[in-house]
Amino acid sequence: MSTIKDVARLAGVSTATVSLALNGKPVNEATRRLVKSCAKKLNYVPNRSGRTLITGKSSTILLVILNSVKYTNLVADTTFFYNYIEGLLEIATEHGYSLTFDVKNWEDDDLDEYFHRKIQGKGIDGIIIIPQFMRPYSFLEVLGDFPVVFLNSYLKGERISSLYVDNYWGGRLVAQYFQRCGFRKIGFINGPEEHYDASERKRGFFDVLGTSHNIIEAFGDWSARSGYEAAGRILSQRKVDALFCGNDFMASGVMRYLYTHLLEIPGDVSIIGYDNTSLSSSLYPRLSTVDGQLREIGKGLGYLLFSLLNSNSISVAQFPVIKPKLVIRESSRPYG
Q1: CATH of domain 167-292
Q2: Whole-structure pTM value
Q3: Distance (Å, whole) CA 65 – CA 76
Q4: Which side of the chain, N or C, has fewer Cβ within a 10 Å radius?
Q5: Which of 180, 168, 199 is nearest to 290 (CA)?
Q6: How close are the terminal C-alpha atoms of the chain, in Å?
Q7: Bond preceding residue 46 cis, omega within 30 of 0
Q8: Which of 300, 295, 306 is nearest to 23 (CA)?
Q9: Above 60 in pLDDT, residue 98?
């Protein structure tokens, strides 16, 4: 079995340089390519446990998604979070780290204890948490000064390091488009009211349209089934010209409802979803949607966590905000 010394000998560099090159640390790029080529030729695989003993680091980060038992489990039922994981894994790999992944529920009695075990076990160097819902972060006391980055934390303060996606802006984009199209009878199907992203999308949407439009609202749980049911609740009350759906999965359920009730898309009802998942371009007609830049979110979370790990001095004010973009396809009538 090849060792780091074998790789260093073949590459003509020191073992320290090999370690730097293979772990994503600062080193000349030509040297990095040479070292990786030599390691591949020798089938060298770094000994992670040995490296942990030497450096005191595990070279592993943890992604935790917090669900609620009250709603559909998007991790199990959809490919939505895969987009985050793909982007995050790219950045972790660049830094010579591996990624481990876990799903917990806010209602779990042992949630605080879970995080305590994780940070005491020496198996991870940092954590990324996707909280989703607006709940008390009781585990903050447990986490203490451990390197942690949140996605869209509704809590803000010195102890919260979070990447933010401007879902408020995304809601505004849809509302402005509906305005330009001249729609007056509008339906809005949003996710759970206690979901932070859903609340921000709604706030942006209503801030543009306000009371000048006759908006009828219904709620789903992000699933296609809930979109189908919410469409029925809205359309049983009155006809609408356009529907804004809080995610692509609910939009797919809405489209199925319209088809089964012989309503044309976009002839009778224009539809816009949210997230721009792979589903949106697979539906017929292809779904107009808000591109949440999901893979970029994963990468952004990785950049922030590794900045925190490398400097321990990240200011909340420095954190970038990712801006969604509107993608218009055949499911909504063009304006003009």
Answers
A1: 3.40.50.2300
A2: 0.81
A3: 11
A4: C
A5: 168
A6: 68
A7: no
A8: 306
A9: yes
